[in-house]
Each structure stands twice: as C-alpha cells, then as structure tokens.
Design goal:
The complex is a heterotrimer of chains A (409), B (169) and C (102).
Chain A (H helix, E strand, L loop, with lengths): L1 H4 L1 H15 L4 H38 L15 H10 L11 H16 L6 E3 L2 E2 L6 H22 L3 H32 L4 H6 L5 H4 L1 H15 L24 H25 L17 H25 L5 H29 L5 H43 L3 H5 L2
Antiparallel strand pairs in A: 1-2
Helix pairs in contact in A: 2-3, 3-11, 3-12, 5-6, 5-11, 6-7, 7-10, 7-13, 10-11, 10-13, 11-12, 13-14
Chain B lengths: L2 H22 L3 H21 L3 H25 L15 H20 L2 H5 L10 H9 L5 H22 L5
Helix pairs in contact in B: 1-2, 2-3
Chain C lengths: L3 H21 L3 H26 L5 H31 L13
Classes of the chains: A mainly alpha (409), B mainly alpha (169), C mainly alpha (102).
C-alpha cells in the first residue's frame, strides 16, 4: 500500500537502505542520497522542458489561429526532440575578440540559476528538495544570480548591440526585483514563516483569496523577471536584433532558450506554491493526517500547468511594452502599490482577533484588499484625469496661437 | 580530518584563491567575476556557520546588487576593450609588505588566545529569522541603528542618483 | 569540529588580500573591490564569533546585517562618484585624480 500511496518516499527509503547495507558510512549515505535527489530533480526539470516547449508552441499557435507544429510525430510531439537534434548539430561559433571563458560560461549560469530554484519547491508534504528555513529569500537570491549571466553574455560577445541589450535587460530585471520581493513578503507575513512547506501548510484558504493584490503584483513582476511578453524587450528580434544572445548559436543558444522556458514554468510553480496552495487538495494528507502523498504531486502539477497556461495566454494576447513605459510602470506604480500593500496587510493581519477563525480572517483580508484595490483605481483615475486636463489645456493653448506660426513650413 | 573540516578547508581555500586572483588580475571585468566567486565562497562560509539568513542576504545583496553595480561601472568607464596599462602602482611592493606584516601580526594575536583553538561550536543556536527581526525593531535592542541605517540608505540613494546623473554640461 | 581560530585566520587572510587590493591598484573600481573584500572579512569574523562564543544572543547577526547595509550604501555612492569623475576627467586611475580644484 505504501508503494501505491507514496512511491517517491518508498523508493528513497529503499535506495537508502540498500546503500547502508552495502557498508557505506552514514555520512556518505546521506551525501549520496542528496546527490541522487539533485540528479532526479534536475532531470525532471529538463525533461519537463521538452514537454512544455511543445505545449507552448501548440497553445500559442491556437491562440493565433494557426496550428503549430504538427509534422514531427502525431500532433507534433516529437518537434522538441527534432529541435534538440538540430541544435546539437549546428556550428558552434565564437565571435572574434570575444572573451572565451565569459562567453562560454554565460549560458551555463543562466540554466544553473533557474535549476537552483527547484531545490526548495515542495512537490508534496514529504517530497521537497530541502525544506530550508529561508526558502523565500533563497528563491529571490538565486533569481538575482541570473542577472549576472546576462551581463556576462552581453560583455563576452564583443558586440555593442549585445552590450546595449544586456544593459536594458539588467535594468529591467533589477528594477522589477523590488516589487517582487515586496509582494513575496505577503505570503511570508500570512504564514509567519519563510519555509516553503510552512507557507503551503498555512494555506487553509488559498492565499490568492487572502492577498489578491500581492498575487497580481507577484505575477506581473515574475513575468518581467523571466522576460516574457509583454516584457520581452530582451529578445525582441525586431527591435534590438535579438539582444544579448545575438552572437550565440547552436547548443549555447538552446541553453538560453531552455533557461527562459524553465524559468517561465518555475514561476508558475512558485505562484502555485505560494498563492494557490501548492500540493494541497482533497485527499492529500499532512504531517498530522494520513492521506495519499502522491496526490499532492498531481495537484501541484495541475496547478502549475494552470498558471503556465495563463502565462502563455498573456504571451499570446498582449503587445510588447516599451522600455521607458516598463521602467516607469515599475518604479512609479508597482513599487508604491507593493509598499502600501505590505504595510496595510501587516497592520490588518495584526489587528484581526484570534477568534475570527480561518474563513473570518480570509474574509477580512479579502475585504481589505478590495478596498485597497478600489483606492488604487481611484488614485490612478484621478491622476489620469488631471493629465488629460493638462493635455487638453496645452492643446487649447497651441490652437489659440496666430495662424502664421503654423504656416511657416 | 572530519567531513566538516574537509569541507571548511575546501571552501575557504577556494574563497582565498578567488580573492587573490581578484586583486591581481589585470582585466577588470575578470576581476569583478572573481570577486563574485569570492562573495559566493563567503556565503558558503556563512552556511557552514549556520547563519543561513545571512548567506541568502549575502548572495542577494552582494552578488545580486553590489557586484552587478561594479560590473556596470566597469563597463561604463572603459576606454579600450583591454587594459593595456599597469594594473598596480609603483609602490605595490610596499602594500604587499604591509599586508604581509599585518597577516603575521594577526595570526600571532589569534594564536595568543588558546581558548579560541579549542572552542567547540556551542549546541544551542538561536538565530531564527523571527528573532533577528525582533532584535532589529525592539526598543531595547537595535531599533535605533536600524532606523539610522534606513535614513543612511535613503541619503545614499538620493546622493548616488544626483551624483551620477547627466549634469548640464 | 572546526576550531574558531581557523575561521579567524581565513578572515584575517581575506582582510589582508583586500588591503593589498585597496592600496596597490591603480583603477578606482579595483580599489573599491578591495574595500568590499575587507568588509566581507569583517563579516566572517563577526559571524564566527557569534556562532562560537554567544550563539544564544542574536546580536552577532544583527551587527552583520548593519555591516551589509553600510557596505551596500558605500558601494553605491562610491561607484556613482567614480562614474561622475570619469565623465568629467575621462580617467578612473586614482593617480591621475590628484587636484583638489578644477
């Protein structure tokens, strides 16, 4: 029964018992089990990418009223594998004057920075890479690591377009980190802990109900962090000539693409964990209640793919945002909203009486968020109204000038 | 030689080697990258010292922000792609001698306290993040330095923006 | 079991390497890198003393947090100054930035 209900932990215990009976020292057994866990998680992520790239191409194609890949295998399933073969057989170029080490390490670091995040994502209550007590900050720190790979790619290419593209990308990434961290603090606040598993277990009511504004801010800023549309100025082929990975070809470019798609799925998994209850669902047990832990993995994957579908939906629908609009949006709108959000949530959460219970707390926080959202919309409307009035005044002023001004062409 | 000692030696050797290459390297961009390796090694040392939060903040702050800033400054202040001039000034031997004397002095001082050679790490480690947070805002602990630090950060932010902006030529 | 003086020696070595970098390099940014190394060495020292001597108090970690903050602010202002000097004087070599009035 244990094998059916909890195959992953069952396998883990079996392997550990085998290693121990083979005579290894207990510390070495520990290290070996950790290494096996690392290999399994990394392989799972990389195999997932083969599936998600196919899914993305089909879904976005259908949204754009076309079919997507449908020749390589039934429904084009083997298209990703065909792509991998193509990338492996392409010529591996390096531009003259490029910095060899920096040029070669940049795509590796991009993939590493994304794979490291999977160490703290809980698949089920007993299936997690490492339940470290700084889970949320670890995610942010590793994300900050990824901006370096872009700088290295831009510099190592010995190409001024690549460098310019890298500058813009890094400006976008570090700007959007600020509201992302502020929005990430809200689940930490509500769960009173930074461990990812604690945050999931504190979601009797999903945090997207308790903190919809924080969820929205996190979603938008994560899209900007990954560099997906509408924030995909990084790889805008039509604008900055493919940006920082212009000089990359073959497998190195494939690694950059892999890092981006994996990052997109990773933020979907993070959103599902932090705001949609992660592995929680009917039938999954807990630390304290018996249940079927493998169902937790199923729920987690379903929720992640749901959020990933929304990410693809946004990609297929919205146009690209200009760089100055993007940075103004971050610093002038998202950061103040995120600051107000966390302050208000902290105060209200402290003031809720303990007798309110699970749904009472949810109701009060939801109401607070709705009031905040209404306030923000009213403030934006007032600012827009005043801007429109000013523009109308300027236009009226320009038209009141004598006609000779305009005819001097 | 326990596993812990071996791990410590490997991590600190990597850190010190990266630091040495950082200060010797002629190519400034490479020096910045080796600095990042050094900072990562220091974060690993924090993890060995069971200060996990500080390790995460080290990676986030130093590598994610300060090292990125340094790399930006390197890219914005270069005239040629390669450094062709001398990397060290003419009194570098004096600085090296000074550093050497200082390290000998420091090791001698460290050796004079025998208690430090035999202290085992104590068992009860507080160090929970909640405790750190409370210490930073508690009136009888560190709320005053905390508020002063936030004012200082605001001043630094405004100052850096004003100094580095494109002035009217 | 790693004795305390190993950590202190590593921190002292890192400090001296940073000191050499701060004193001997010609590029202003390299000097700043040396200063950052010295601040990191101080942090290792603080956290090692906290862990070995008083792990039940949180003051060691709080102090290290303040050192982080000051280092970040100082790096930001220092680099802004260097960029501004580069714009005006076209050089970042500290030996050539030697007049008080221009």
């Amino acid at each position: 029964m244990d094998l059916l209900k909890d195959p992953l932990v069952f396998l883990y215990l079996q392997i550990e018992a085998t290693l121990r009976s083979a005579g290894l020292a207990p510390e070495l057994v520990n290290v070996a089990m950790q290494l096996i866990g690392v290999v399994v998680v990394a392989t799972f992520c990389l195999l997932l990418i083969i599936f998600t790239t196919w899914l993305e191409r089909k879904v976005v194609a259908r949204m754009q009223d076309r079919l997507g890949p449908n020749r390589a295998g039934p429904f084009g399933i083997l298209q990703s594998i065909a792509d991998v073969i193509k990338f492996l057989t392409k010529e591996d170029l390096m531009p003259t004057g490029a910095d060899r080490w920096v040029f070669n390490i940049a795509p590796l670091m991009a993939v590493i920075a994304v794979l490291l995040i999977w160490a703290v994502i809980p698949f089920s209550w007993n299936v997690i890479g490492t339940n470290v007590n700084i889970g949320v900050i670890y995610v942010v720190a590793v994300g900050a690591f990824g901006t370096l790979s872009i700088l290295m790619a831009g510099w190592g290419s010995n190409n001024k377009y690549a460098l310019l593209g890298a500058f813009r990308v890094v400006a976008q990434l570090i700007s959007y980190e600020v509201p992302m961290i502020l929005a990430l603090l809200v689940p930490v606040l509500l769960a009173r802990s930074m461990r990812m598993n604690d945050i999931v277990m504190a979601q009797g009511v999903w945090f997207i109900v308790l903190a919809p504004i924080a969820a929205l801010i996190f979603f938008i800023t994560s899209l900007a962090e990954v560099g997906r549309t509408p924030f995909d100025l990084l790889e805008a082929e039509s604008e900055i000539v493919a940006g920082y990975h212009i000089e990359y070809s073959g497998m190195k470019w494939a690694l950059f693409m892999l890092a981006e798609f994996l990052h997109a799925f990773t933020i979907s998994a993070l959103f599902a964990t932090l705001f949609l209850g992660g592995w929680r669902g009917p039938g999954v047990g807990d630390l304290n209640r018996p249940g079927i832990p493998i169902l937790g993995v199923v729920y987690f994957l379903i929720k992640s793919f749901l959020v990933y579908f929304v990410v693809m939906w946004v990609r297929g629908t919205l146009p690209r945002i200009r760089i100055d609009h993007m940075l103004a949006f971050c610093w002038k709108f998202l950061t103040p909203v995120a600051l107000v959000n966390i302050s208000v949530m902290a105060v209200v959460d402290k003031l809720i009486p303990a007798t309110a219970g699970l749904w009472g707390r949810a109701g009060i926080l939801l109401l607070t968020n709705l009031v905040m959202g209404a306030g923000i919309l009213i403030a934006v409307a007032m600012v827009a109204h005043r801007a429109r009035q000013r523009e109308a005044a300027l236009l009226a002023q320009a038209e009141a000038l004598p006609a000779t001004v305009g005819t001097a062409r | 030689m326990t596993v812990g000692q071996l791990l410590f030696i490997v991590v600190s050797a990597a850190t010190l080697l990266s630091a040495l290459i950082t200060v010797i390297n002629r190519n400034l961009f490479h020096a910045a990258l080796w600095l990042i390796a050094t900072l990562f090694g220091v974060a690993a040392l924090f993890v060995l010292l069971e200060a996990g939060f500080l390790a995460a903040v080290q990676v986030l702050l130093y590598i994610g922000a300060i090292a990125t800033l340094i790399i930006f400054a390197v890219m914005l202040t270069r005239r040629l792609m390669t450094e062709t001039r001398e990397a060290v000034n003419s009194e570098w031997w004096l600085s090296a001698a000074l550093a050497g004397v200082l390290i000998v002095l420091l090791i001698a001082i460290i050796g004079r306290v025998p208690a430090w050679a035999s202290t085992a790490p104590q068992a009860d480690v507080s160090g929970s993040i909640a405790e750190l947070g409370q210490a930073l805002v508690s009136p009888d602990l560190y709320v005053l330095p905390f508020e002063l630090a936030s004012v200082m950060l605001l001043v630094a932010l405004i100052g850096a923006i004003i100094i580095a902006r494109e002035g009217r030529r | 079991m790693v004795p305390l003086n190993w950590y202190l020696i590593v921190a002292a070595l890192l400090f001296c390497i940073g000191l050499y970098g701060a004193l001997a390099r010609r590029n202003a940014i390299a000097v700043l890198i040396g200063i950052e190394l010295m601040l990191n060495a101080v942090n290792i020292n603080l956290v090692a003393f906290w862990r070995y001597l008083t792990p039940q108090l949180i003051s060691g970690q709080a102090y290290a947090v303040f050192v982080f903050t000051v280092a970040a602010a100082e790096a930001a202002v220092g680099l802004a100054l260097i960029i501004s000097i580069y714009r005006n004087r076209e050089t970042v070599v500290v030996e050539e930035i030697d007049i008080l009035k221009w």
